[in-house]
Every structure is written in structure tokens, then in C-alpha cells.
Amino acid sequence: MRVALAQTDCRLGDVTGNLETTERLIKESAADGADLVVFPELSLTGYALGQLADDISLWPDDPRLAELSRHGPDVVIGLLEDGRIRRHNSALYLSDGQAVHNHRKLYLPNYLIWEERKHASPGQHMRAFDTRFARMATLICNDAWQPMLPWLAAQDGAEVLVVPTNSAAKLTGGSFDPAEYWHDLLTFTARMQQCWVIFVNRVGDEAGVRFWGGSRVVDPWGSVVATAPTWEESLLVVDIDPQAVRRRRREIPLLADARLGLLRRELERLINESGSD
Length: 277
Description:
With 277 residues, the chain is α/β, with parallel strands linked by helices.
């Protein structure tokens, strides 16, 4: 399976221009034999939605989106989804003119410069899904920082985790370095869930924030097999073997003894004790 990581610098609010760039990169990827092209989080709209006066959300069945997957490769594309009453930070998996899966971001950060809850509502489901290449799951940016979600995806059979992201460079004078955190997190996730991880971050400057790129592919042993450059646009094409997941999970069956009943009981206890829903 050949995957193209489209590390782009999208233009805030310019859906038409971003669609044109997206289509061009998909055609380039097709010429290089790619089976799947993955774009960053919100790649059709830009991230700083609070800077926009107009509603630029898109219907998931917008025919312009379906056309993106008619050039050969499947496509993962990020958009602000029009959910009628609510808007969602979503990633669509498209294949042969059809939407195979729609993941709505589950954990919306609302600290420091991030104000996603002002502009989007959280999703309510996390599902692995079958494609013509492998069983996959999508986790958008901050979703991947929640330890239970990659584990749930793997328990649902995901062999490939796709992680579209808008990760900014170091924001404060402290010791928090997003690039370093992402490296450790992606390595840990691939190693412990014994799956491929495809991380695609954007680049460019937007509303006073600089995005660093560094998109990469990590194998089921936790080794980084390819990395895109920092700070600049890139189209990185990588071959992966989904069958390696099965081999790895047979070698060391870390996921086999999930004890889902135990987890359900303990989660119900915590929910009852905290009053959360």
C-alpha cells in the first residue's frame, strides 16, 4: 500500500483555492502510484475559524468532495462540516466518489490559543472502518492525545491509524515542545497498539501561529520509517505493509486480553461517582 502525506499550507477561508490545491496534489500522488492521500486537519478551511465572518462549513456530500477521490487514490480530507444545527471538525475518508467514513473530532482543545469549542461541537463516535487496503481508524489531532482512543481503535480492529493534525510550534517560554511530544506519542501509540500510524501535520503561518509540519509514518514496531521536513510544504510518498500488523500482533499479543467487561464495570463506577455522562 502506497500512502502520500500531503503536508500543505492551506489558506484560511479560501475553500475554493484549497480544493484546487488538494486536487492538484492528489493528481501528483496518483502519478506516483499512491493508493491513499492524507491531508492535514481542516485542510480545506484553515484553523483560525474565529477570524472569519462567513460560515465556510461544507456538507459531507458536497459533490466537490466526492470528485477528489475520482483520480485514483483514496483521500482523507479535513473540513469544517455543516451538521445543520452544529458544526464539526471532521475528516472524511473518500473512495471512488463515495464517503466511506466520517470522523468528527471527539476532544476539542479549549486552552491557550485553542478555542475549538467556540466553533465546533464534539463528535460522539469512534469507529474503525474497512477500506480496500486495510482496516483503519481516524483520530484528529487532540484525539490522539487521549490514551483510550488509539486503544479502542485497535480493539475495533484498526491496522492503520490516520492522524490529521494542526500542531503549532512552541507556544510559550516553558519546556513544552509539541514536536517532541508528538514524536514520543506517535512512537508509543504505534508500538503499544501494534499498528501503522500516519501523522500528517500542516505548515505555514496563520493568525499569529506557526505550524511546523514534520509529518511521518511509524511502523507497528514503533520505528519512524519516513519523515517530511519541518516548516515547508511537502508531498511524502511511503510504502507500508498492512500485513505487518498481523505479524506483529502474533509475535507479542498485547491487545488480545482486553477484559472489556472489567473496563465497563470500572468506567460505570467512575461515571456514577463523578456524576458525568
